[in-house]
TrEMBL record:
Cellular localisation: Cell membrane
InterPro entries linked: CPA3_antiporter_subunitC, NUOK/Mnh_C1-like
Signal peptide: none
Cited PANTHER family: ANTIPORTER SUBUNIT MNHC2-RELATED
Membrane topology qualifier: Multi-pass membrane protein
Segments of skewed composition (Basic and acidic residues): 116-126
Region listing for Disordered, in residue ranges: 107-126
NCBIfam families, per the entry: PRK07946.1
Sequence similarity: Belongs to the CPA3 antiporters (TC 2.A.63) subunit C family.
Organism: Nocardia speluncae
Domain of life where this protein originates: Bacteria
GO annotations of cellular component type: plasma membrane
Protein name: Na(+)/H(+) antiporter subunit C
């Protein structure tokens, strides 16, 4: 089995862009990063599912293709799409709530976390 190098390159670019966006401080860029990584994973599963084939239906005959397509990859992609859309809806709800409370979508450092980090730096190690 050989994988399509072009699709694997597209997967790599999508993951790289998604990780870059996930590292940003605004919620909308984080959401776009999550969506890009989700689509990259779906494309990777589709690419690794093998070559295209006939419909995965018992008893179906196809004169063009000899083998049947792998239905597991298709089922995993459908499940991943649903999960990605659920996560996107959750992040949008968090972004809306954050914007209503702070009128900003930028994620700031929590003062309590900063204080704990400073205390840990000041304490000598044993």
């Amino acid at each position: 089995m050989s994988a399509n190098l072009t699709l694997l390159t597209v997967v790599g670019v999508l993951v790289a862009c998604g990780v870059y966006l996930l590292l940003e401080r605004t919620v909308t860029k984080m959401l776009l990063g999550i969506l890009l990584v989700g689509n990259a994973v779906n494309l990777l599963i589709l690419t690794m599912g093998g070559p295209d084939g006939a419909a995965p239906i018992q008893g179906a005959t196809d004169t063009v293709r000899d083998t049947m397509a792998d239905p597991l990859a298709q089922a995993l992609i459908l499940t991943a799409i649903v999960i990605t859309m659920g996560v996107a809806a959750f992040v949008l709800a968090l972004a809306y709530r954050s914007y209503i409370l702070t009128t900003s979508e930028k994620v700031e450092n929590d003062p309590e976390d900063v204080g704990i980090a400073e205390r840990e730096r000041e304490e000598p190690e044993e």
